[in-house]
Amino acid sequence: MIKTGISKLTFKPSDIRKDIERESQRFITAVMRDVREVAVEVTPVDTGQARRGWRNTPQGVLNNVEHITPLEDGWSRQAPTGIGRPVIKEINRRYRKGKYE
Predict the structure, then answer these.
(1) Using an 8 Å Cβ cutoff, are 65 and 57 in contact?
(2) Can you say how many angstroms the Cα of residue 13 is from the centroid of all Cα atoms in its chain?
(3) In terms of DSSP bridges, do strands 60-63 and 6-7 run parallel, antiparallel, or are they unpaired?
(4) Are 87 and 42 in contact (CB under 8 A)?
(5) Hey, where are the domains in the chain?
(6) CA atoms lying within 13 Å on the CB side of residue 88
(7) Of 14, 16, 18, nearest to 4 (Cα)?
(8) What is the DSSP string of 15-71?
(9) Strand locations in the chain (E)
């Protein structure tokens, strides 16, 4: 929640900017944590290597396992629509339900 701004007759744009940056970072962190969580849940399992490959990094949620691209392309019968679409669908569902407010 943004807490600063106009109070009495004082308007401090720098305080508002700091609040917006802090809240934006909180939002991004929460969403990226959930993206990783959902990606792990929807990643098909054979040996478990692809599930264990998910990492949160400063660049985003990444998986460097060699066979992640074929899995995303629907190679597995366990995840015929890949991984990205179900993740996005679930994150959108959580957003609509108000999780990130």
Answers:
(1) no
(2) 29
(3) unpaired
(4) yes
(5) 10-96
(6) 6
(7) 16
(8) HHHHHHHHHHHHHHHHHHHHHHHHHHHHS--SSSHHHHTEEEETTEEEE--TTHHHH
(9) 6-7, 10-11, 54-57, 60-63
Measured in residues, the chain has a length of: 101
Of the candidates 82, 76, 95, the one whose C-alpha atom is nearest the C-alpha of residue 27 is 95
* Cβ 11 vs Cβ 5: under 8 Å: yes
Confidence of residue 92 (pLDDT cuts 50, 70, 90): very high
pLDDT tens profile 37-65 = 999 999 999 999 999 999 999 999 999 99
CA dihedral for 8, 12, 13, 15, sign (positive or negative): negative
Residue type at 18 in one-letter notation: K
Query: Regarding beta strands 60-63 and 10-11, do their DSSP bridges make them parallel or antiparallel, or are they unpaired?
Result: unpaired
Cβ burial of 80 (10 Å; 0-12, 13-18, 19+) is exposed
